[in-house]
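Structure first, sequence second, as always.
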């Protein structure tokens, strides 16, 4: 099996043809036309407003069996996203950072622990979607390739990607969409 980023060669007669793939294995990279986000995205996106209560957010996510809920302004612009992790974090005990006493104060041992703690406390105190959401989520365009979306989704915290066109939310793509595509491609090879 070839390593990721390796070269696959196909020799026909005296004309060697070399293809390179860098993100997806050959079954997806070998498509004649690259698959685009618009080919597999969900166009009818369940959204919420910034003023929606935490209960309303949780209810929408449960009713529609979704793991992320885009937060959209009254003008239809994406302002953030609420995920299952955001909701769960709101009800989990915060992990306090460790401090070093110095002179008359306390200094956090690790600044990222302090930032995480502040975010956890913010989630606990949140009363609406705007206070709970993650601002500036990673997004894709309908014309981006599936490989680009996959590269973003393998990063922690990127299970769903809102799809924006001209600043407006036009769809969403999830890891489940990619898994379904992989299943279809694998089934087609058998």
């Amino acid at each position: 099996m070839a390593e990721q980023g390796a070269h696959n060669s196909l020799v026909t007669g005296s004309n060697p043809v070399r293809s390179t793939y860098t993100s997806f294995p050959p079954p997806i990279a070998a498509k004649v036309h690259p698959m685009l986000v618009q080919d597999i995205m969900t166009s009818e996106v369940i959204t919420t407003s910034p003023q929606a209560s935490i209960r309303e957010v949780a209810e929408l996510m449960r009713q529609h069996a979704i793991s992320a809920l885009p937060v959209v302004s009254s003008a239809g612009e994406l302002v953030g996203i609420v995920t299952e992790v955001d909701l769960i974090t709101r009800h989990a005990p915060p992990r306090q950072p460790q401090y070093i006493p110095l002179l008359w104060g306390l200094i956090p041992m690790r600044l990222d622990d302090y930032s995480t703690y502040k975010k956890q406390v913010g989630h606990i105190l949140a009363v609406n979607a705007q206070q709970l959401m993650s601002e500036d989520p990673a997004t894709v365009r309908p014309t981006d390739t599936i490989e680009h979306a996959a590269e973003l989704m393998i990063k922690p915290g990127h299970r769903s990607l809102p799809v924006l066109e001209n600043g407006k939310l036009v769809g969403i793509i999830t890891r489940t969409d990619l898994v379904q595509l992989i299943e279809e491609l694998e089934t087609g090879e058998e």
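Margin note: The first helix runs from residue 26 to 29.
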